[in-house]
Amino acid sequence: MGAEVFDPIREQLGGDALEAAVAHGILVLRIDRDRVLETVRTLKEGYGFDLFLDVTAVDWPEREPRFDVVWHFYSTRDFVRLCVKTRVPLADPVVDTLTGLYGSAHYMERECHDMYGIVFRGNDDLRPILLYEGFEGHPLRKDYPKQLEQPLVPYREPKP
Amino acid sequence: MTEAARPAPSGAFEYLTTKKDEFVGWARKFSLFPYPFVTACCAMEFMSVSATLYDTDRFGAALPRFTPRQSDLLMVVGTVTHKQAPVLRKVYEQMCEPKWVIAFGVCATSGGFYQNYAALPGIDKIIPVDLYIPGCPPRPEMVIDGIMQLQDRIARDRHPIVNDRF
Amino acid sequence: MTLPPLDHLPNPIRPAFTEGSREGSVIVNIGPSHPATHGTVQIVAELSGERVVRTDVHCGYLHRGFEKECESHTWHNLIPYVDRLNYCSALINDFAYCEAVEKLMGIEITPRCRYLRTLLAEYSRIADHLTCVAAALMELGAMTAFLYLVTIRDYVYEHLADLTGARVTYSYGRIGGLARDLPDGWLARLDGILTQLDEFTGRVHALVDRNRIFIDRMRDVGVISAAEAVNWGYTGPILRSTGAPRDLRKDTPYLAYGALDFEVPVGIKGDNYDRYYVRMREIDESAHMIRQLVEMLPDGPLCVDDRRCTYPPKALVYSEIESLINHFKLVMEGPQVPPGEVYSAHEGANGELGFYIVSVGGGVPWKVHCRSPSFVHVGGLHRMLDGYQLADVVPTFGSVNMIGGECDR
Description:
Chain A is an alpha/beta fold. Chain A has a single domain (3-121), classed as Beta Polymerase, domain 2 (2-Layer Sandwich). Chain A is 22% helix and 26% strand. In chain A, the strands form two sheets. A five-stranded mixed β-sheet of chain A has the order 1-2-5-4-3. In chain A, strand 1 (19-23) and strand 2 (26-30) form a beta hairpin. The termini of chain A are far apart. Chain B is an alpha/beta fold. Chain B has a domain at 35-55 and 67-156: Rossmann fold (3-Layer(aba) Sandwich). A four-stranded parallel β-sheet of chain B has the order 1-2-3-4. Chain B is globular and about 55 Å long. In chain C, a hairpin with a 7-residue loop joins strand 7 and strand 8 (367-371). Chains A and C meet through strand 3, strand 4 and helix 3 of A and helix 1, helix 8, strand 6, strand 7 and strand 8 of C.
């Protein structure tokens, strides 16, 4: 299912991709981070992937480059899903923004920045969305301790 | 004020104060105006407990006032996160005395099973709480039991309305 | 009791604008503790008179660290966290997550489990739509409709409590199956509830559908076109109300949806009235699907007989050492999921509910990410609020069905 959509994509983009494989019904393209914007533009305009589902990151602290940035797309015409991945290092966690192509990218890139610290070049509104002003650090990174709280209101002694 | 300076209590005055406390307590307990500070899943049970099957209107506690200035019972329903904490503190401070606080649900009581960077481990870390209703979410019967216990406490409480002593 | 004063209460957000863009406009803050914003969304609105010029929507007040919690619990132990994402229709979250893990493990669930999961997913969808419509109508002032719908929802909750033990957050899905099978008499009561559901929704239709005030407040308010909706990531009833008949249950059937006969209700304009009506029609379609599923429900085992995830029968646990060790390891270390990653989506009550799961082998996930429809819908909310009046913010927000647990995770 989806082979008739995936095969032309693999032919056109698979050569430049570092990896292109179908896993659990989804074509996964791993590409270089500088090619992300043009690849996504081709996918949107040429192959009908008009619904941008999600962008998130995966933290692999033992590996260099450390983060995998993962985008998922859906085609409302052909009913198939596609995944684009790239790798970015901790020292320079920058990828291009997709806000020019999809409106839904605004909030999702803010969340990815909040949680992992990935910077989306071209998106100048990366304010905290799930966290709050004054929160330091990026909690979903593996080196952020789960229970490290940063309270905004100082605690009081609960009296009976 | 020392013992010598305070006038000796007279039986009639104590009787009057007690009766006044009972009357005011009765009036206050049956006319609670909750401020539903609703955040999360417990809201589903809050809606159920305010609706027809488990009615809080019978206890006089159904009519919510969505401004803290007009309410006297702050029901914190659901998880309060660190981002929401200043908001909760501000709402609490905007309420006038007398006021009571119910921590509805285990997230408001102690943080529930969200023991991490984001959730406040219990609202009593920032505001004083009068009643804790555990449950995730609590059954409506537990909520009604909790409201009745709070009403008993309000009935037993002292209610100085004119000055400290009366 | 008065508290010692604080020097200053910090502002947890930074609004996108602090001054008006035109003369005489006023910046107003709605929320986050507000009845109509369902308690966890803040809308900073610039008003010119009664008209909303622009809005800046802030969510995140219910961010409870779901993903971080998932990384420190076993694959089974995090099912209660998954429940509390979209807490109005908690079973759909359970089943979507379990299916994602089952894909990674290569497990095929039994036919009975597949049909029962479909039935319960539709039942949960009914509960979610009832809640959304009840809250939206109450915020407009139609208190009677709220009471009718919450009453029937309470019957549904009690019925699900008979099955799962809990009214709101069930934790009923298990990897490879479900927690327990149907008790006696459950299906008979289900039939009774569906009959009452028809009656109650009929009353609400009678009160509201052709009500002049309702139409004036909801028609042509909060309009979004199909193309714009897809660009801003809308799925589910909101996309269907714009006229695009996109539904994962029909387009890419999963569970038992391929065997069912149902329609996908579609709106005409993408305004608040259409969103309300699409949800009411979806309640009818879900009831129709449940009736078919009750007829089609096969007998047989509920959980797949795979010792990697299903507990051995208690009698064996107490008599055989292998079953005892199996049970012990499943509880203490969790089901061992092979390394890999998968994105698996179901049609939630709000739209595409996806789980992106990364496993490095072992009983604890490396990453569990929830693609939540509500979060994306709140991202595009300003497109539906700008240009309308201040009083329209309330019904538009109510029709979007922002569920805090799902939006902020």
